[in-house]
Amino acid sequence: MGERMIESMIFYAFAVLTIGFSLSVILLRNPISSALSLVSSFFCVSALFILAHATFLGIVQILIYAGAILVLFLYVLMLLNLQDENWIFNKHWTFAKVLQALSMVGVMTYISLRLLHIEPMVASSEMPTEFGSIESIGKILLGEQVLAFEWISVLLFIGILGVIAICSKKTKEAK
Amino acid sequence: MNTQMLFLMLPPVLGSFILGFFSFISYRRVEKISGWIALLAIVISFFAALSMLAGFYGHDTHPVVLDLGSWMKLGAFHLDLVFKVDALSTVFTVLITGVGLLVHLYSIGYMSHDESRTRYFSCLNLFCAFMLVLVTGSSLPIIFVGWEGVGLCSFLLIGFWYTDKANAFAGRKAFVVNRIGDAGFLLGMFLILKTFGSLDISVLEQHSLLSSLAGMPVLEWIMLFLFIGCVGKSAQFPFYIWLPDAMAGPTPVSALIHAATMVTAGIYLLCRMFFMLKLAPMVMDLIAFTGALTAFFAATIAIFQSDIKKVLAYSTVSQLGFMVLAVGAGAPDAGLYHLITHAYFKALLFLAAGSVIHALHGEQNIFNMGGLRTYLPGTAITFICGFVAITGVPPFSGWVTKDAILHAVFSHGHTTLFVLAFLSALMTAGYMTRLFHFVFLGNPRQSVKSAKNIHDSPWVMMLPMWILALLSILGGMGALRFETILEGWSHAQDIKHLDGPVSEMTMNALVTLSTLGAMFTVFYLYNKKYARLESMAQQRQKLISFIQREYGLNQFLVGGATYLSAALSKLFAWLDRSWIDGAVNSVARVSMILAGVISKIQTGHVQGYSYAVVVGFFVLAYYLLSGGV
Amino acid sequence: MIPFEHYIYLSLILFSIGLVGLVVRKDAITVFLSVEIMLNAANLLFVAYSRVRGDEFGHTAAFVVIAVAAVEAAIGLAIVIRLKKQSGTLDLNEIAQLKG
Questions:
Q1: Helix-, strand-, coil-residue percentages of chain A, each rounded to 5
Q2: What is d(CA B246, CA B258) in angstroms, rounded to the nearest whole number?
Q3: Residue B94: half-sphere exposure toward Cβ, Cα within 13 Å
Q4: What are residue B79's DSSP bridge partners?
Q5: pLDDT value of residue A174
Q6: Mean pLDDT score across all residues of chain B
C-alpha cells in the first residue's frame, strides 16, 4: 500500500510539473525562456516514463530529445538573436485567438473522451524485469520492426539532404 | 432474290457506275460506245418491266417483291428494304424504261459530238435507276431516296454544260426549289410516323386508325406536307420556277426528265397515297385548286414565249396542272391516263424540238425559224402527231385523256375549276398552233436562210420520234393506256365516277368543238391578220413582257428567298454572338468569380491552416471511428 | 496504483497545451516548441498503452517518433533561418507567401 501511495505521489508531482512547464512554454514571451521551460518539461516527462517502466525510453528522451534537439533549438535561437525584435514582446493573445484555441481544445476533448477505451493496469510488482529494457526494445527494433528502423535511417539521410538544400546559398552567376 | 426485279433494278445502276468510272478515266474506245452501253442497260430493264406487266394482265395480281432485308432498326421502329411492283408501279416502270429507252437512243445521236457523253449517259442511267427506286419503293423512306436521287440527277443533267454559268445556276435552282418540296415531304413523313407508327405503305393502307382519323386535322396536315413535296417536284404554282430554267440542259434531258418522268414523281406520290388523301377533303380541294391555277397560269405565259423549248416547258407545267387537278378532284385514274399520254406526246415534242435545234445548229428562237416543213419533213410530221395529240384533236391520245379529266372535274362539282381548265385547254391549242406556225409554216426566216444543209436527223434520232409519234396517235386506245391495269387499281382504291349533270358525250363534243375552233382561229389570225396582231402586240408591249417574265413571279420568289435567308443569317449571327458566346463567356466569368471568393480561404497564415486541419481531422475521425457517415 | 485514465488525461492536457501554443503564438520558434510538446504527449500515450498491454511495441513507436521529431526539428529550423534571411522577420502574421 505504501508502495502504491509513493508511486501515485511521484506521478502526480511530476505530472503537475510537466503541465506547469508546458504552460510556461506557451505563455512566456521570450522564446529562449520557452525553450528552457520545454527542456524542464522533458525532464519531468522522462521521469514519468521511468515510472511506467519504460526505462530505455526515459533515458533516450533525455539524451536525444532534451539533449540534442532542444540544444539545437537553443543554438538556433541564439543565432537568430530575437531579443532585439520588437514584435516579440507585443501582445500575442487576441480575443479571436483565444476563442480559436478554446474551441479547438473543446472539440478535441469532447471527441477523445467519447472514443475513450479504458483498460485495466497490471500491478507494478507483476511486471517482468526485462520489460522496457534495452534488450527487449532492441529485439523488437531489429526483429519485428526492422523496416521501421531502416526507414528512420533513410529519413535522417533525407533530413540531412534537405537541410543542406535549404540552407545552401545559391550564388546567382550569369551563365 | 426475285430475278425479274433484279433485271429491272440493277442494269441502270451498274450501267451508271461503269460509265461513271469511265467518265473519269476518259478511255477513247469506251466513249464511242458509252451510249450503247447505257441503252443496253435500259433495254434489259425494259424487258423485265414488260414481263412483269404481262403478269398483271392475268388473274394473278400479286405484286412482285424484291426483299433486301432489314434497313433500319431504331427501338420500336423497323424498316425493311423492299422493292415492290404492284399495279400502279408496273405502269410507271414500263413508262420509265420505255420512254427512257427511246430517249437513250435519241441521245446517242444528239450527243454524238459532245466530249463528255460518257458522263451524260452515266447520269441518264442513274436517273432511270433512281426513278425506278422511287416507283417501286414499298415504304416512304425508300420513295424519298428515289425522290432525292432524281432531284440530284436532274441537277447533274440540267447543269450538264456547266462551263456556262447560266446552266450551272439553272441546275442549282432546280435542286434548291426541289429541296423546299423535300422539306415538306420529310415533315409529312415525320407526322405519319408519329401518328401511325410505321412508314411502310402496305401497313399504312391497312392501318386501323385510318377510318377513325378521316377528315381530322392530322390527316390534312400530313397530306398538305406531302403535297408541298409534290408541288416542288411536279412544278406546281408557285414552285414551278425551276422548270423553264431547266431548259438549259440538253433537249433529250428535257424530254425524259421534264416531260415523262421526274415531274410525274409528284403525281405518283399522290396516287400512291391516295388511300389517305381521299380522307383529307380540304387538302383535296387545295390540290385541285392549285392544279387548275397552275394550268391556267402556265398556259398564259406560254402564249408569249419566243424560245421553242420554253414554250414546251410552260406547256409541261400547264399539263402537270391538269394531272394534279384530276387527282384533287377525286379522279386520279383520269390524271394517270393523262400522265401516260402526256409522256408520249410531250417527249415527242421535245425530241422534235431537239431535232430542229440540232438541224439549225443551236437556234432556239422561233421568230428566227419558219418554213421548216420543207427542209425537215420527217421532223415536221412527227411534230404534227404530237401537236394534234396535245391540243386534243379527236381521236388522238390527248383528246381521250384531257376530256376524261375535264368531265371528271365538272361532274364532281368544281365548276370554277372546270372553267379554268377549259380555258387552259383552249390556250393550249392556241400556243401550240402558234408554235407550229412559227417554226414549220410560213416563209423561212433568218436562221433558216443562213444555215447550210438543213436536213432531218439521223436514224438514231428519228426512230424514237417515229415510235413516239405512233404512240401519240394511237395512245387513246385502252391497251396503250394500260387501261385494264389501272382500272383494276382504281377499283381497289374505291374510286367511283359520278355522272354529272352533263353526260360525257355532250361534254366531249362541246370541248372538242371549242378546241378545234380555237386552233383554226389562231391559224387564221396568224396567216391573215398578222399585221393586226403585231400592232396590238406593240401597244401592249409592257403587259406582254410582264407576262413573259412569269408575271414577275420568278423575281419575287428568288428575291424573297434571298432576302429571307440573309435576314435569318443576320439574326442567327447576332444570337450566336450575344447568347452563345455570352453563355460561354459567363461560364468562364462565374468560375473566375467563384475562384476569387474561394481563394480568400488561402490566407497564407500557417496557423490558420493548422487550426482548420486539427478541427477537421477530429470531426472526421469521430465520424469514422464511431461508425457514422 | 495509478489508474490508467490519469495517463490519458495528462496526455490530453499536454496535447491541448501544445495545440493552443501552435495556434496562438506569433513567432515561428515557439510554434515549433509547441509541436514538440504535442509529440511528447503522443509519446506519453504510447508508453501508457504499452504498460497496460505488457507489450513493448509502444516503446518502439515512441522511439520512432523521437527520431522523426529530430528530423523535423532540423528541417524546420533550417526553414526558419532561411525565412529570417529572406523576410527579415519571423512574425507569422506577416509571412503569408502561401497566400492566394
A1: 75, 0, 25
A2: 9
A3: 20
A4: B72
A5: 44
A6: 83
CA proximity to B397, closest of B512, B481, B488, B518: B481
- Confidence check: pLDDT of C100 > 60: no
Euclidean distance between CA atoms B163 and B179, whole angstroms: 24
pLDDT of residue B445: 76
Mutation for B interface: C25, C92, C93, most B CBs within 10 A: C92
Which residue in chain C has the smallest CA separation from A35?
A: C33
Q: How far apart are CA B363 and CA B366, in angstroms?
A: 8
Chain B partners within 8 Å of A114 (Cβ): 622, 626
User: At which residue does the C-alpha cell 466569368 appear?
Assistant: B589
Nearest to B323 by CA among B339, B301, B343: B339
Interface contact flag, C100 B599, Cβ < 8 Å: yes
| pLDDT for position A172 | 54
CA geometry: angle A91, A95, A99, nearest 5 deg: 130
Q: Record the cell numbers describing residue A110, joined without a space.
A: 469532447
Q: Is the CB of residue B23 less than 8 Å from the CB of residue B122? A: yes
In this prediction, residue B201 has a pLDDT band, given cuts at 50, 70 and 90, of confident
Contact C40 A41 (CB under 8 A): yes
> Residue B110: which of B258, B249, B288 has the closest Cα?
B249
Q: What separation in angstroms does the CA of B535 have from each of A140, B383, B530, B584?
A: 130, 30, 9, 70
Cα–Cα separations (whole angstroms), residue A81 to A24, A166, B306, B529, C81: 21, 20, 113, 131, 11
Cis check: omega of the bond before B464, within 30 degrees of 0: no
Name the closest residue on chain B to residue A105, using Cα atoms.
B615
Taking 90 as the threshold, does the pLDDT of residue B186 lie above it?
A: yes
**Segment of A130-139, B24-33, B111-120, B421-430 carrying the highest mean pLDDT:** B421-430
- A61–C53 CB contact, under 8 Å: no
B392 vs B403: CA distance, rounded Å: 8
Could you write out the DSSP letters of every residue in B257-321?
IIIISTTHHHHHHHHHTHHHHTT-HHHHHHHHHHHHHHHHHHHHHHHT--BHHHHHHHHHHHHHH
C-alpha to C-alpha distance for B533 and B431, rounded to whole angstroms:
14
CA distance B341 to B254: 16
Band the pLDDT of B502: cuts 50, 70, 90: low
Phi–psi pair at B273, nearest 5 degrees: -95, 15
* ω into B281 cis (within 30 of 0): no
CB contact under 8 A, C80 and A148: no
Q: What's the pLDDT at B514?
A: 82
- Per-residue pLDDT of chain A (175 residues), as tens digits, is 566 778 888 899 999 999 999 999 988 888 899 999 999 999 999 999 998 888 999 999 999 999 999 999 999 988 887 766 666 556 667 777 778 888 888 888 887 777 776 666 665 556 677 787 888 888 888 988 899 999 999 999 999 999 999 888 775 544 4
Average pLDDT over residues B191-207: 83
* Chain B residue with minimum CA distance to A96: B608
In the structure grid, which three cell numbers stand for residue A20, read together? 506547469
DSSP state of C89: -
Helical segments of chain C, H only: 4-24, 28-53, 57-87
Over residues C28-43, the mean pLDDT reads: 93
Q: What is the C-alpha to C-alpha distance for residues C25 and C12, in angstroms, rounded to an integer?
A: 20
- Alpha carbon B535 to its chain centroid, in Å, reads 39
Q: How many residues does chain A have?
A: 175
Q: Is B598 on the interface with C (CB under 8 A)?
A: no
Give residues with Cβ within 8 angstroms of B22, minimum separation 6.
B30, B31, B34, B118
Q: Which candidate from B615, B619, B626 shows the least CB-CB separation from A115?
A: B626
